[in-house]
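Hey, can you fold this one?
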Amino acid sequence: MNERLKELLNISPDEATKEDNEELIEEIKTAQLIMPIEITSMIDINDAKVGDIIEIDGGLRFIPQKIIDEDNNLFIPLFSDDSEVYGHTSAIDIYTKDLAEMIDDNPENIAGVVLNPFSNFSVTLPMDSFLGLFKEDY
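Sure. Predicted structure:
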């Protein structure tokens, strides 16, 4: 998944050419990335026992997990592939265009998105820049 995107993300910013940066933006626009989520529900499962069947009338909801930078800004972390995700977490695969629509429909106080935040060369996009990549699409 996202082999070319991962290659571009592994180029040092000092060594990246203008063409590399343009290709990176195009790859981001069409990428399907991994987004850690927190699953939320109004159902209390504390009294559930092994083997119980639990019915969920309203479905499950999820919210993106967020990370905080040194200035206390919130970012949505996105990962190019499983090897970039650390720890045990719930996650979904999401196209960047779908994420942009979701954020635009439900704006929060989120500063931006960060791709592969724990790698050597992560890429941070301010929210306006990220949403701007898709404005003509929706």
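Residues 3-41+59-137 form a domain with the Trna Endonuclease; Chain: A, domain 1 fold (CATH 3.40.1350). Let me know if you want another pass with a different chain boundary.
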